[in-house]
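For practice. Any example?
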Amino acid sequence: MPREAPRQYPLALPVEHRFGAEDYFVAGPNHAAHALVTSWPRWPDRILLLAGPEGAGKSHLASIWAATAEAAAASSAADALDALRAMPERPILLDDCDAPGADETALFHLLNAVREARGELLLTARSTPTPTWPRLADLASRLRAVPVARLEPADDQMVAAVLVKLIDDRQLRVEADVVEFLALRADRSIGAVRALVEALDRESLARGRAVGRGLAADVIARMQEETD
């Protein structure tokens, strides 16, 4: 009976993710949001909310805008307020404004301060206001008045394109027929595609082999078992 090749234990090496405008794939599900965000400085309002599910590409699109607008990137609403007070004329990016534990009162004050200073602000969130977010009623009212650039769920074309990009980012050796095999079986979510490519990379390193159809099928089967 043939012995299985010994597995290696890959190191968690950093991966260079490219977030330039040329690396952003524009298709039906994100076309309208991309057009609205990149229409700056001709936005319909001084504040814009970029909404979409986790892994939909919000941070990538927001980073494209931030580079163009030379915006200050804030990690919290309080930091964004500090940036606004320091340089009122500079646009501000606040990513994941609906993150668990985010300070809703600070975000409410930020929206008011941006309008008073006639500043510009791009927010990203997983959704527009819902019955559970935000809990602060005044903040929910303010956010509902903000124009929304909405990223829709990925379609087959986008899944395939993102799959190719992420494989390229990790410099994996994958033949075209295997990429097609993966694209047909990957979940229709950019976050799921990212998790799939990460799993392929780990398995390829562990086995010391390129990503062939057999390896790809094993990884997909294991991931499906883990989610069942």
About this structure: The beta strands are 47-51, 72-74, 92-94, 121-125, 148-150. The chain has nine helices and five strands. The longest strand covers residues 47-51.
